[in-house]
Amino acid sequence: MAGGGLAVASAGGEQFEAKITPIVVISCIMAATGGLMFGYDVGVSGGVTQMPDFLKKFFPVVYRKSNEAGANSNYCKYDSQGLQLFTSSLYLAGLIATFFASYTTRKLGRKLTMLIAGFFFIAGVVLNTAAQDLAMLIIGRILLGCGVGFANQAVPLFLSEIAPTRIRGALNILFQLNVTIGILFADLVNYRTAKISAGWGWRLSLGLAGIPAGLLTVGAIFVVDTPNSLIERGRIEEGKAVLRKIRGTDNIEPEFQELLEASRIAKEVKHPFRNLLKRKNRPQLVIAVAMQVFQQFTGINAIMFYAPVLFDTVGFGSDASLYSAVIIGAVNVLSTLVSIYTVDKMGRRVLLLEAGVQMFLSQVVISIILGLKVKDHSEDLSHGFSIFVVIMVCTFISSFAWSWGPLGWSGMPMAMAFRIQIYKNYIP
């Protein structure tokens, strides 16, 4: 992970003594609101871009095309580079911001990085809600993307480091659970605001993102920084005091010495990225990178961003499209809960393999139905096929939500657990 950080557990998987203290629970809940903000930004886009008032104001060409083509064509209703820039600018900004976030996470700490993310989120929400032209809208999305980059860098690392070893997997999935809750919340909001006839429903949808943004900012102010981060930055005694506080016990010496040793070894590394590419460290590197890459290659973002648009295109109508998106969001949340309760019993590998097959088959079925039944200048899908498409999309979403979604993040602690041993391999 580019941001740097020390593994809480020992390299050998030793379970350190620790209680589940209130400060750990509160800190994890507040930090995980970064996932809530990310999920809301992902979920709100698809619904907003389908609202006529939003399209009429910012994308009049798309608005005219969608109305003119609505009765004749199933294709190219939303073909607009500006519209695609609105949705994709968040991800592009998030990608670039991650490189800066890696520096702040390492040098300034996880807490301050989450606070920076909160400020970016608030600024982006304000600009999007008050947007008067496309430039203002895009700048707001870019600021939200910067917030995503900083939050996604710091929050999972914060959760991994502050949680006791025995519940770290479940608490780390809390980030992904909040992502799914944020998506569901956005779908519900879009379903209601789309019915506002005064023309400002889209502003309310974008403005309500201020709730999770505010929660993350307030939470970042009051949470403690992790012992790992404090020790890494040379604040040894403060790190020890925080470790004692969050573990709820005075028997912290074994874990504290482990963190000190990891910090000492890390500082002796001269060329970490060069050594990371050596053959002996390649398995850990491949696992850490592949988990994140394949999480995105599943195509989940296309579904989450454009589900309302997809359903509208195949003939659901505006209300039914948003309602179907709400169903998908609910399935997403419930299936993530499945992962929390099964990951430590069934193991990550079983869930990832099973879900991979399930996602593949559901996507094949969807492709066949849309390829055969949805034609240009043709009738919309029949009622039965429409419902079946929704079921198949839910099948895809459920498998992602109990596997590649949360386990992509919970794989971070696993990758970090290798780091002490990797650092030892770095030293000649």
TrEMBL record:
Q: Name one Pfam family in it.
A: Sugar_tr
Tell me a Gene Ontology molecular-function term this record carries. Answer: monosaccharide transmembrane transporter activity
- Provide the topology term for how it sits in the membrane: Multi-pass membrane protein
Keywords in alphabetical order, please: Membrane, Sugar transport, Symport, Transmembrane, Transmembrane helix, Transport
Q: Which InterPro entries does the entry mention?
A: MFS_dom, MFS_STP/MST-like_plant, MFS_sugar_transport-like, MFS_trans_sf, STP/PLT_plant, Sugar/inositol_transpt, Sugar_transporter_CS
Q: Where in the cell is it found?
A: Membrane
Domain of life, per lineage: Eukaryota
Which regions span the lipid bilayer? 20-40, 82-100, 112-131, 137-159, 171-189, 201-224, 285-309, 321-343, 350-372, 384-404
All residue ranges annotated as the Major facilitator superfamily (MFS) profile domain in the record: 27-428
Give the record's GO CC terms.
Answer: membrane
CDD domains given in the database record:
MFS_STP (cd17361)
- Family, per the entry? Belongs to the major facilitator superfamily. Sugar transporter (TC 2.A.1.1) family.
PANTHER family from the UniProt entry: IP12678P (PTHR23500:SF357), SOLUTE CARRIER FAMILY 2, FACILITATED GLUCOSE TRANSPORTER (PTHR23500)
Q: What is this protein called?
A: Sugar transport protein 13-like isoform X3
Origin species, per record, is Rhodamnia argentea
